[in-house]
User: Fold these one by one.
Assistant:
Number 1:
Amino acid sequence: MKTLALVLLAASGANIARIKQTLFIPDPLPGLETRVHGRFDAAPGVMAERVTYATQFGLRVPAIVYSPKPRPALKLPALVIVNGHGGDKYSWYAFHSGIQYARGGAVVLTYDPIGEGERNSERKSGTRAHDRIEQPEELGRRMGGLMITDVMQAVSYLASRPDVDRTRIAAAGYSMGSFVLSLACAVELRLRACVLAGGGNLDGPGEYWDRSKPMCQGIPYRSLSFLGDRAAEIYRLHARRGATLIFNGLEDTVVAIPTHGPDFFADLKRRSGAAFEYEFVSGASHRPYFVTRPVALWLERHLDFPNWTSADIEALPETHISEWARLNGVPMDRLYATEDREGGTRALGDDVPGLSREALSVFQPDEWEREKERLVYESWLNEARARLAK
């Protein structure tokens, strides 16, 4: 039995190494070269920091990092938020999560995915700039690897902070972010817990994820066919790292949950032999469920928030997001602002302010112009093209 366990462990290690190689994830990771660009009070009891740190090719990731104020004496758990398509650190669920979990006693990092926010050449959000198909397909593999690298660099940043307990770092992703994390949480062994919201239903050849957005999802996922039963092996790798929760609305047609529901996940769990958990909400569609009470309770069990107990979370009020957004002037993506999607979300807490775009920007406009070439998607694409395999 001991020999078999060692063989399986070696096979898992080999698969992790091959995933990294296939997606051009740098090993070792780049040095962080962290810079703090300012601080502000995000909400009563919450401090926010404007930071940047390095990713592939010497480019930089702009992020907002939320933490409790005053800080507890003990080291804190931490959480990385990974956005969906068109989302970034300006998205309502990014700063809502940051503020609410910081109140619970966590350090929360939100950042701009490549091509969005301050990593967009026009400094815009909701552009989906990286969705434009670029040839050859290797660029799609590299795009998937960049998005995973960004997550791993976020983990490195949090682990480097003196106020963070590096054994209690988690990540939560929504939609595209759930796909990015499904792979990142298979290769990033420093993550204690992983939440996949609006996704996680990794399927087989020619099915939903193979046919999804090519550059950031379809091409990277198809490139992992060497794993055999990709979904089962990916979740076996998750089990090696720690806990995983997959959380979906039963009516989520965005990621095909009506055909990838409870029976699909039961079979996936059987095939993988992994102990991941999955839950569904009836009558609901595509939402960032990590802002809701059930996921907060799950994270509390795995991270032990210093300012919250499970009873505290159960007692917190909820906010109807479409109404909150209207009253606070918070923009929402019109594709997802409907009641069955994000607009109908019942988020934890009832006193999160609507933060302005100015507050959530790392750079002033003139500073951004000076730093632009080290931030934007086009700079990454040019560097990636220069490194194409011969």
Number 2:
Amino acid sequence: MAREQVGRSRLDDRWLSAVRAGVIAAFGLILVLFVSGIPVMVREVATPCAGSSCYRWQPTPQLGHQLLAAGISLHLYASAYIAVESVLILGIYLIGIVMIWRRPDEPMALFGAFTIVAFASAFSDPIVSASLASPLAWWPRTFMAALGWSSLFIFFYLFPDGRFVPRWTRFTAVAWFLLVQIGFFSRASWGFNSPASVTRFQSTSTPFFTILIMLLFASVIAAQIYRYRSVSGPIQRRQTKWVVWGFAATFGGLAILIGVAGRLMPQSAESWANSPIFTLIGLFLFYGVLLVLPLSFAVAILRYRLYDIDVLINRTLVYGSLTVTLAALYIGGVIALQALARTITGQSSDLAIAIATLAVAALFNPWRHRLQAFIDRRFYRRKYDATRTLAAFNARLRDEVDLDQLGTDLLAVAYDTMQPASIALWLRESGGTA
């Protein structure tokens, strides 16, 4: 049986070879930048720095003293930091290589592999460190990072069949591409490529840039909803679900990490910088969550039928909602009980935290079952109601005499309960011939 294709876009063999060679060359360039940035970053991480102009990966003098007091050299800490930094770029490299290896003749697979690796170059600290240390590395890194930012939204406009759907997305894609190039290669500080974006405790985000990103996210969501409802077939819808799940899981996970870090962060920024173990763990989790998005790209293109994405979405909705609601209940309970304790006794009480913790523990399982039942009924009624569907069909079967209607009902039941990509029914005539 012929292998199912990811999309309908195809390229001439010569163009396909050129695109493939370009993607491989981009992989090689980014790998060279990453390797060349390692010794630069090791020196910088092993050099304590005080003040707000230091790079975010440089330790403070206080942290350096703590490491030395614990018998840990700064070079060992720098090696551990580089190892954690390697999680992102090497993980994405592996995903990209698998995509090229498994689908070397499909443009969307090649474009997806290029997108995730080029986009990673904008965030990989060793690559950024190399670009800040040498103009020879600055230009190629800036070029690849600009292409990565540009490609990310264009990929969402094209996925999964390589066409701009709806048509207005091609104009949005061109506008986004031009704006990214201006942001990277002009002197305007949009948060793309300013040195301040890698210094400690500084941000270069502007209201204009934030609003622009939000509008682009909205346009991507609108385009994918239109494509899903009006254009996509069963296979493309399954692929879209994988990418949408990866997108939601990545940014939801980052929001949770940032929220947790905000609650745990000490009041003093300097004391926050003096927690090396917490920094490394947080960085590892941050990059691990980021890897969910490219992994969803790869599964959507290569193995979209291997796992049941509907079940994965279901569990994500259940446990995501469970986490948010219980966290809100816990924080609200602690605040309310602490306020009550201060009103009665004039001071805070640790008992409030214990009561809130016990309440959350008691509500966890009942609330999970309620959320599971609600989401099953609301979003997956047909699939998770297979028993009722089969019982209804069995009741109709006793009185059904129309063979054509029986075949139609049988196909509907099979589709509702098993959700196949395609389904057909053949009936053999009573004489024994097809």
Number 3:
Amino acid sequence: MVRGADIPCREGDGGYDVRWPWNAPGLGRRDDGLTPGLTCVFRVKNEARNLPWVLPPMFAAVDHVVLVDNESDDGTLEVASKVAADADAGARFTGTTYPWRVSRAGAEHLATPPDSVHSLTHFYNWSFAHVRTTYSMKWDGDMVLTPEGVGVLRDLAWQLQGSGSVVAIPRHPLSIVSEREAWIDLGFRFLEPWIYPMGPDFTYVKAFEWEVREFPTSSERIIAPEGLVVELKWIEEDEFAHWTSVEDFANSRVPRKRREWEVYTAIMEGTAHEVPGLHHVVAPEGVHVVDHVVNTWLRTAERPLVRRVRES
């Protein structure tokens, strides 16, 4: 017998209603349907290019990976499955699809009801309902862990159990110009919570520009060190297609997006060297700049990495 939905979608498609695991005892070893551990949840669209860098360190860092593909046309899910198999992590990988057009961040999101399959809010809640561990982590398909990042997450995974804490992780955008050349942004503090306990107090709700994961004010907030994550931004790709309009960046609530637009514009206009906090990186011959930054450049860069700190 199929139990009722915790969050029915207004379109009436039961396959995309949200059913939380803690309301379905028996799925795991505990009464709440969850097992101790950390699951990373990706919500992705057309990330096949990035996943060979993104997934292997994540499989080394967490207990399980859930990847939800939203209408990709570049073989994203197939690439993810192959990377999982190559990493001998097939048993720790869940790949699925979400075949609905999701409203873009900004004005389009604001106009979409939160219980619609087209809402970012419902999309995220449906995705995280696939988690079967006590902790979950939101992650993007263009974010690469450094070796230090893998170690930190592996340590956190067992220390967090039962704590109720949330974890914020700084990330450093890496704008890739060519196989050997990139610009890394260390002039803005890109910091937000990524890791949360699973439970009814930690679900997604609708905000003005995007979805927001709630958590109790009593939750301890842990801030991870800098230098653990880079966010890949290929300069020839449209990094802002998931926004209704770049005019939304004028809003005081989205300084992070304004900074990203400033950096992108400067690189395209050839004035990146004039932007405070942007660093030009050239990899050695025969080494891809992503590998160079992740494995060498960040590890040896002077601390603190971010000098001109502003809150995101």
Number 4:
Amino acid sequence: MDFEGEGGFSHAIELCNGCGTCRQTDSNTMCPTYRASKEEIQTTRGRANMLRAGISGEISEEEMFSERFQEEVLDLCVGCKGCKSDCPTGVDMAKIKTEVKHEYHEREGAGLRERLFANIDSLAALGSRFAPLSNWGPKLPGARTAMERVAGIAAERELPHFERESLEEWFAARGGSKISVADANEKALLFPDTYTNYSNTTPGKAAILTLEAAGVHVEIPDDVVSSGRPAYSKGFLDEARGRAATNVAALDPYVRDGWSVVFTEPSDAVMFQDEYLDLLPDDDPTRRVSGDAYGVLEYIDVLRLDEEIDFTDREESLTYHGHCNQKALNKDHHAVGVLRRAGYAVDPLDSGCCGMAGSFGYEEEHYDLSQAIGNILFEQVDESGGEEVVAPGTSCRTQLGDRPDETAPRHPIERVALAIAR
């Protein structure tokens, strides 16, 4: 990746000055694994010190790219990006980790589970095509145990459910947007992220209905691929770069024609807004597409689109848990503003990572730590006065919904859509 902005890869690590802000446990996002484990090596500083020892020769190159180093130093970084915003010097350990994981794959190869998670978009498309049969398989006796033994996927986790009709298929069947281009105030492309498209279409439908209520002409682009976030998170940078290049090439003509790219999934929005700038050449198409990418509630808030919507009076109070990737770019507050103008009383939690972090919480050896991180969030939720929890991140809703006797929270855009007067 491009580390020119940090002064090179080694300087990106040297940005850590040892101040120990990553050891804070009472506010902001950084550092979730330290909060749960209280082990120095799980802080941003601890990881930076180990990587500094590697590039300086204090530990050998063989040790730095050993399986033990990867598992004990890097794999427990959940990629929340909290250090990018919370660290006084802006150490981006998520980016550094991904670069090192890529080099590790180049040297040592990658396992089955890593490749499965990196290409989850292809598996999800198959799961949707063969639903409901694909949803029955994990419920068969012994299926979870077998998956844990073969692929290292924690047997305790509920696996994603697949919908037979994808969001793209639903949108085509309804005849596309209900707002014509001629009558529209704005034009938006709703990016069909993997989870919203194949596993839970409700947030996508709510986003479309809300945007149309604000006079936006909405389309779902059919020439894009996965954002590349799963591949990026697992350190497969060639695959992530290829998907990023495909998406920029497909979307740039639209952006030049006045369209914006909108996402219901925060991690995909941030992938476009931040990581694409490191993966791709610093050219006009990349900057244009990145600069016109928005989370759906960010888009509504920035353009004040909700001023065009007639909302009903609401009496509900909501507890809002934001997504750590959006917090890292200071884009998390937009949802709270829109929800409040839609009539809700909102308690925004000063919460960190939920502990699920994409595939991290599914991995058998990380399950206990994932739950320990989650327990910190669970306590904050229980102490909040909100009648209902909302969270924009798929991982966050999964983690919160995996608690005993709890149902998965809704995406906040669903609550906004429910408030629209009809």
